[in-house]
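Example record

The entry below shows one chain as it appears in the dataset: sequence first, then structure tokens.
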Amino acid sequence: MSDTPGTGGTGDTGDTPDTPDRPRDAAGRPRNARERDALGRPLSPGVSGVERVPDDFVLPPAEALAEAQRLIDSGRPFSAHEVLEGSWKAAPQHEKSLWRSLAQLAVGLTHAQRGNAVGAQTLLRRGADGLTPASGSTPYDIPVDDLRAEAARLADLARQGVAFAPTLRLVRNAGQPPADHSAAQAPVAT
């Protein structure tokens, strides 16, 4: 996997030779100007979508985590992924793996919302595995070991075809219990 945003790290397909006229930012990276639905899927031209996180949106770490958690809690893990991806792009080199892994977890939740069990399982596991170097620590109050365990549990549910509430607790909150995923009932489309 590449550490370079836009090259497949979180599910972004990047650019292809057959899209030379695709909009690009100042650095030459491809940008998609199409409206998207709440699950991050591009909509047909002329169809209005949800408010998007700007491509250059970067918050300080604690604020990025709070905003990503708010978005996950409101059922918008794709938008949470965009917030976390901004932090990944702006992070110092020694933190890029942490932020990339968090973004991958949000993409895994997005795949679960879309009914894509294989994508959910793959990205949840990839994100959990990417957090391994931070095991035993709580950078920015992220309960890394708990988050890894919960992501692995959700990946197992996806593998089994069991639907689950697409949420994770990114930051420890005093007095708040862990996320409850007991809403699992119907199989996820594979």
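Notes for this example: Residues 96-114 form the longest helix (19 residues). The chain has five helices and no strands.
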